[in-house]
Write a structure and sequence with these properties.
The complex is a heterodimer. By secondary structure, chain A is an alpha+beta fold. Chain A folds into two domains: 106 residues, no CATH class; 137 residues, Outer Surface Protein A, domain 3 (Alpha-Beta Complex). In chain A, 54% of the residues lie in helices and 14% in strands. Chain A is elongated. Chain B starts with 7 loop residues before the first strand and ends with a helix. Chain B has a single domain, classed as Alpha-Beta Barrel (TIM Barrel). By secondary structure, chain B is of the alpha/beta class. Chain B has an eight-stranded parallel beta barrel, surrounded by five helices. A two-stranded antiparallel ribbon of chain B has the order 8-9. In chain B, α4 crosses α5. Chain B is built from nine helices and ten strands. Classes of the chains: A alpha+beta, B alpha/beta. Chains A and B meet through α1 and α2 of A and α2 and α4 of B.
Chain lengths: 265, 277
């Protein structure tokens, strides 16, 4: 094992960093031949991983341009080498890389765009689960409503975004000219989810984002609605109508997998 | 002991899902890339289940890393077993290679030295994998661009020895034999002649990129004439073997691949006729 272990270590060092130690172990007439053959593995490593990132982050690629994306991918590959078996997950650290890298953190739109695109991937192949119907929720007896809690569908992702990432994404999809990045002081909340095997997203109204997060934190329906009324400053009836309307849209969109009547269930 | 001959298949690719379900193409079976379906849910598993309801499916992995000196990845094996339990594939295959070292993954099919040490290492790991999965696996020869000075035997001796020690089956990639033969200057017929024919369960066919001084296994073009000839020789030598075409890039429409697969059917039929004449 000692010989094989050493060879694999040196070979991998060459593929990832161009280290030359393995060259003398390659069969061939001269060093130029050996290096040319090793170069195939060296190049393929970067090409394959860059291609995988382009699949996960097509709008980011369109935003940066081919050359800019390739440079960014090269930096990501060197900084965050893959430790996963499945290429599907190689790009998992992209948003955090873009937030912390000295060069790319200067453009915070990049990390937010990456986070938005990664959320679409997460929604795409998240676990399958039923989506509850409004009729099921409406059948809950009135005395049980105050303690009613909701379980989010596993595909639902929430992304906070200060930048116009949806406009950038649409420009990529429609092959239109990229809009200039523009930043809002307060972050929007974007929901990304899957229904009937199709991925959707939309920006939430601020009161909607507040109410959804309250439910997602495990707050019961009664307390959430009371706090919602106070937060919005609306009349009780208006706030209740708004909350009911939001609940209806979430159910229709398939955000809710199930509900609990008793918090101890 | 080989599994049943499935006939002529294609690699299952995302762009063909709807066409397969709508047109019920003349394809006997599909090979699904295991890692593409090691996900929690959504479209990939939905389509795999639907296609599996109509066709035999085999699972083909790229990340087992059977030749790595890292420990076997138990989480990967569990995910593979769970997928196999769900799909009930006719068989499960991966490559005779390593994909990474020290917990890194290069996501490439990296070459092994053909040494007794590597035979013993790989054989012991195949035993463990077969024990874990409770089924024999198929091991595929890869295309390679380098050989190592420390090699003590030919690639076909290496493959044959591992197969004999573990009772694993072989996935013979005829294009890879051609590519490696070109790259290393060996006669691909000698490779086919030397292998234990009763262990060859499946054949892969694919296109490649000829760079003049070497060939790269790109799976992005039709099978070339020389590889078709080598395939004919393989069938004449080995008899009927489940055969499929792999295309991973520049993927044409399904009908084009079905037509290419028909070429494999014709060649295999003619080869068997010649062999029995």
């Amino acid at each position: 094992m000692k010989t094989l272990t050493g060879l694999q270590e040196r070979f991998q060092q060459h593929v990832t960093s161009g280290d030359k130690a393995v060259i003398e172990e390659i069969t061939g007439p001269d060093d130029a031949y050996r290096q040319a053959r090793l170069r195939i593995y060296y190049s393929a490593y970067r090409l394959r991983l860059t291609a995988a990132l382009a699949v996960d982050y097509p709008a980011l690629k369109a935003f940066l341009g081919d050359s800019g994306f390739d440079d960014m991918a090269a930096a990501y590959i060197d900084t965050c080498p893959s430790t996963v078996r499945n290429l599907r997950w190689f790009g998992d650290a992209m948003a955090s890389f873009l937030r912390t890298d000295t060069k790319y953190s200067q453009q915070s739109v990049l990390a937010e765009l990456a986070e938005f695109e990664w959320a679409q991937g997460l929604a795409f192949d998240a676990a399958d689960a039923p989506q509850t119907s409004f009729e099921q929720i409406a059948s809950v007896a009135p005395p049980d409503w105050p303690e009613l809690r909701f379980i989010a569908h596993p595909s639902l992702q929430l992304v906070a975004s200060h930048w116009n990432v949806i406009a950038i994404w649409h420009a990529h999809r429609d092959q239109q000219e990229m809009p200039s990045p523009s930043r809002r002081e307060q972050a929007d909340t974007i929901a990304v989810w899957r229904k009937d095997y199709k991925t959707y997203f939309r920006t939430l109204d601020r009161d909607e984002a507040w109410l959804w997060r309250t439910f997602a934190d495990g707050t019961g329906f009664g307390e959430a609605c009371a706090n919602f009324t106070a937060m919005t400053g609306k009349e009780d009836a208006d706030a209740a109508q708004r909350a009911a309307g939001l609940l209806r849209s979430w159910v229709d969109e398939g955000w809710i997998q199930d509900y609990l009547i008793n918090p101890d269930d | 002991m080989r599994f049943q001959n499935l006939g002529f298949g294609l690699g299952l690719r995302t762009v063909h899902y709807e066409d397969i379900l709508d047109s019920s193409p003349h394809v006997d079976w599909f090979e699904a890339l295991s890692e593409n379906y090691m996900v929690r849910g959504g479209k990939p598993l939905y389509y795999l289940d639907r296609i599996r309801a109509d066709y035999p499916v085999v699972l083909h992995g790229v990340s087992l890393s059977i030749g790595s000196t890292d420990p076997l990845d138990l989480e990967y094996l569990k995910a593979l077993k769970a997928l196999a339990d769900r799909v009930q594939p006719a068989w499960v295959s991966d490559h005779l290679c390593w994909t990474g070292f020290a917990s890194k993954n290069i996501h490439d099919l990296l070459p092994l030295p053909y040494t007794t040490e590597a035979v013993e290492h790989v054989a012991s790991r195949i035993d463990q994998v077969q024990e874990f999965l409770q089924r024999p696996i198929l091991i595929e020869n890869v295309s390679s661009y380098v050989n190592f000075d420390q090699s003590e035997m030919t690639e076909w001796e290496f493959l044959g020895e591992i197969s004999q020690r573990t009772d694993c089956l072989l996935l013979l990639d005829v294009n890879n034999i051609y590519v490696s033969g070109f790259n290393h200057g060996f006669d691909p017929h000698a490779f086919i002649d030397a292998l234990p024919g009763d262990r060859i369960q499946q054949i892969h066919l694919a296109g490649h990129s000829n760079c003049g001084t070497h060939i790269i296994d790109t799976h992005d073009a039709p099978v070339i004439d020389e590889v078709w000839k080598l395939y004919r020789y393989a069938i004449e030598t080995l008899g009927p073997v489940s055969t499929m075409i792999e295309r991973d890039d520049h993927i044409p429409d399904l009908a084009t691949l079905v037509t290419e697969l028909d070429q494999a059917r014709e060649i295999a039929t003619a080869a068997q006729f010649r062999a029995s004449a």
